[in-house]
Amino acid sequence: MNLTVVLFAMLAAVTAASAVGVAASRSVVRAAVWLLFTLIGVAGVYFLLGAEFLGAAQLIVYVGGTMVLMVFGVMITNQGPFAVLRTKPVEWAVGGVLAGGLFVLLATASLNFVSSGKTPDDPLPGISPIGLSFLGVEDGGKSYLLPFEVVSVHLLVVLVAAAYLARAKRRVNQVASGKEQGTNKEDTRQEQGVTP
Amino acid sequence: MISLWHFLGVGAILFGLGLVGFLTRRNLITMFLSAEMMLQGVVINLLAFGSHHGSLGGQAFGLFIVTVAACEAGLALALFLMLYKRGRSLDSGDWQTVREVGVPPAVDTVPLPAPPPDDHPTLPVPGRLPEQAEVRFQEVTRA
Amino acid sequence: MTDWLATYMPHWAAVLVAAGVAAGVLVSFVGLAAFLYIWGERKVSGRIQDRLGPTRVGPLGLLQSLADGIKLITKEDTAPDGADKFLFRIAPYLAFVASFAAFVAIPFGAGLVPQPVSTGVFFVLAVLSTEVFGVMLAGYASGSKWSLFGGVREAAQVVSYEVPRSLCVLVPVCVLGTLDLTKMGQQQGGGFWNWIAFHDPFNSAAFVLFFVTATAGCKRAPFDLAEAESELVAGFHTEYSGFRWSVFFLAEYASMFAVSGLAVLMFLGGWHTGFLPFEPTEQFGFWGGSALNAAVFVGKCTLLVVVMMWLRWSLPRLRIDQVMMTCLKYFLPISCGLLVGVGLWQLYLHPLIGAYTKYVLGFSTLLFGLVVFASLFTAKGVAPRRELEGVWAKG
Predict the structure, then answer these.
(1) Is residue A77 part of a domain?
(2) C96 Cα to chain A: minimum distance (Å)
């Protein structure tokens, strides 16, 4: 019973409990908050596995970026103060049975790895080998230069696409009339409204 | 002592619960959140195996997955906003027009509640008197 | 300490007790810092506005924060009817835990760090970036329009400002070649010209930019759009009262201290005094040297926090579109340029003139500071006229 075991037990309990919260909560924002705790717990598991960089990246990308975006989306799209999700018992049964079966399968498969003997206590390679391998320096390991570049370009393309999809759209005739008169919709309305 | 399968177990729990959420929910955002949770289970698996073999691959692919998930979130949010602008709803059942060719539409046994009307308060047109005030103004002038 | 405790109890209990004690020390430090900073902020604002600030409670009004705290704790803790009660209750604690957890990786001296993290800078940035979630949640869960607006603004602002802030952090990392905050501090020992802010012009600019974006990241004025009291009542904490309200302020002051600490460690020489040519822990023993180091570090951080206060009471608040435009159109390209520039500097110019630049930059900054300081004494005081021109006709 050393510190790692205590920490792992706590983190795993927090992660699993808040994952149950995600699956069971009836409000979208609460599901997002439970997912936040799950993500923090998973980041803790990464730290425990020795992957400090990935844990911090998880915090900054998922918690600071993705979840904020999602809650932002919920704030914009929710009707009423708090939208409530409804689920039929049949759906619970089908989903539960499928997921339970999958979980049993995965658990039995992973239990087979017990015999391999090696404990995951060996320190992972630190951050500088990762950086070097991303830049294509083959220092006894593998080089991940091509996937790194592909992911970078992917990120850029997605950035452009998201900006294109979410841009403020105006109808064509409005744009045309706005260009001619040099005014936008509010201004024209205001002009029409001012009647003595 | 913690061994590999403890971590794999946590990953399997996350994946299973994410699957439950994905199958039972119909709100697009909640489905997305559940899918993210399944992804987390996968990354834990990758990292646990990477640390088990003492190799770099687990962390590298974990980083790639985190990057791709961030892309996915940005794109998903943009799509959600666009769908919401068109249909005022994020229920996946409302978007049956994008189903596959030759597949009959899924019909709910209990119809969905209609989306509430868009009742944002609107400001009166500036520079003109509000209507009630206008009426009163006319009455006054008539008298 | 763990070993000493382990003679009295089982090992895991000793570890937990030691962790609890360390956390307690940190929490009391953060609490005391917020206590004094709130007093300092009121004094600074008072002086800037030609007032006295708090004077009644204790000597110089030092106990004003204590009186306020007692008042806040005895207030009724209410939640509005339309609120999501659970989220409303946990939101302040989420914000506080995020900014408090950043202190785990910040070294207060050589080896004086709660938990050494090899990717310290990145960890602190990541943990601080999660503070926005508590604020957003508070805005959403209050069920009030003002709070919601505050939360949405905070989300947009903080997520945008994270990008130039992280890019500015990369500039000194390029020079120092490590993400470990302790190693960063150790590399800047000796004279103050060894501080990274004076290493090259790009790092000096990066320091200024980092400080500005960090101010925005802490939602301090002139970027306090989330609580813009002239527009949004009190923004995200409109509906909060009592203890939960004060927790938001603890979080704000804690994150101010944390980002100042980051700036000091990366740019301003960390715990080094700037004129002692040796490492104090090696000369005065670990505890004596660490006391000096911690005092210097806290002093430097406090200086930066006071500059933040000075900015708050001097500049008017920006509009939300101006805030976003400043970030995306100016800070982001500038920080990218700085990153490229420092790379080129390290490759080509540093071998040529790197040895002289630090002296030039360091001593010219010192000289400039001294001139400004001296001008305070030599400048002729302009006594305000008793009568405003043109108001009263002289008869």
Answers:
(1) yes
(2) 15
Chains that touch A (3 or more CB pairs under 8 A): B, C
The residues, any chain, with a CB within 8 Å of residue A26's CB and separated by 6 or more, are A84, A85, A86
pLDDT in tens, C278-306: 777 777 777 778 888 888 889 999 999 99
Our CA-based measurement puts residue A181 at a distance from the nearest CA of chain C, in whole angstroms, of 25
The answer to whether B36 contacts A66, with C-beta atoms less than 8 Å apart, is yes
Cα A189 to Cα A102, B25, B128, C250, C316, distances in angstroms = 59, 43, 11, 48, 33
Q: Where are the domains of chain B?
A: 4-96
Q: Which of C118, C132, C148 sits opposite A127 (nearest CB)?
A: C118
CATH number of this structure's domain B4-96, picked from the four choices 3.30.420.10, 1.10.287.3510, 3.50.50.60, 3.30.200.20:
1.10.287.3510
Question: Most B CBs within 10 Å: which of A29, A36, A38, A97, as the mutation test of the B interface?
Answer: A38
Distance, in Å, from the CA atom of C380 to the CA atom of C373, rounded to the nearest integer, reads: 14
Residue A116 lies in a domain: no
Residue A93 lies in a domain: no
Q: Collect all residues with Cβ–Cβ distance below 8 Å to C284 and sequence separation of at least 6.
A: C292
Quick: pLDDT tens for C113-142: 777 788 888 889 888 888 888 888 888 888
Percent of chain B residues past pLDDT 70, beyond the cut: 72
Domain membership of residue A99 (yes or no) is: no
Which residues of chain A are within 8 Å of residue B79 when distances are taken between CB atoms?
165
Smallest Cβ distance to A56: which of C10, C123, C151? Answer: C123
Domains: count for chain A? 1
pLDDT in single tens digits along all 196 residues of chain A:
567 787 888 889 999 999 988 888 877 888 888 998 999 999 988 888 878 888 888 888 888 788 888 887 777 776 544 456 666 777 788 888 888 888 888 888 877 765 454 554 555 566 777 777 788 776 666 788 888 889 999 999 998 888 888 776 665 554 444 444 444 444 444 444 433 3
Q: Quick check: A73 and B81 CB within 8 A? A: yes
Give the domain extent around A41: 3-88+122-193
Q: pTM of the predicted model, to two decimals?
A: 0.81
For A27-91, the DSSP string reads BHHHHHHHHHHHHHHHHHHHHHTT-HHHHHHHIIIIIIIIHHHHHHHHHHH-SSSS-B----HHH
